[in-house]
Amino acid sequence: MRTKRGVSTLEQVRRRFDDWRRTRRRRTRIPNPLWRAAVEVARVHGVYRTVKTLGINSASLKKRCPSGKREKLCRGGREKGGIWGGQSACGDGGGRRGGGTER
């Protein structure tokens, strides 16, 4: 399901995940088309909102984002400085939690 512009909405992707969860066999991996849809909506809505809505692991979602686009993927939530101050939500090594030199 796609909108007129060709981009799936978060709600559409959530329904796809729900359908897959109802029909899958236990312990099966999430199919690649669902991961691609999750990355697509994370670029719009941010990682946090996407993982909470879809019930997926944030590290697994970030791993599937092309490395050159990780910062863009993380911009959907808070725009300035990510979650913990001066760094992006992707855990790029800084900020209060990421092991930076600030105390």
Structural notes for this entry:
- The protein is mainly α and 103 residues long.
- 46% of the residues lie in helices and 0% in strands.
- The protein has five helices and no strands.
- It has helices at residues 10-23, 32-45, 47-54, 58-63, 70-74.
- It is globular, with a radius of gyration of 15 Å.
- The N and C termini lie far apart (47 Å).
- Mean pLDDT is 73; it is low at 77-103.
Produce the secondary structure layout:
Elements: H1 10-23, H2 32-45, H3 47-54, H4 58-63, H5 70-74
Helix pairs in contact: 1-2, 2-3
Shape: globular
Sheet of most strands: none
Rounded Rg: 15 Å
- Through-space gap between termini: 47 Å
Q: Averaging pLDDT over every residue, what do you get?
A: 73
Specify the helix fraction band: 40-55%
Please mark out the parts with pLDDT under 50 across 5 or more consecutive residues, or reply none: 77-103
Structural class: mainly alpha
The quaternary structure here is single chain
| DSSP summary: helix tally | 5
Strand content: under 5%
Beta strands, count? 0
User: What is the H/E string?
Assistant: HHHHH
Task: Provide a concise account of the structure shown.
The chain has five helices and no strands. With 103 residues, it is an all-alpha fold.
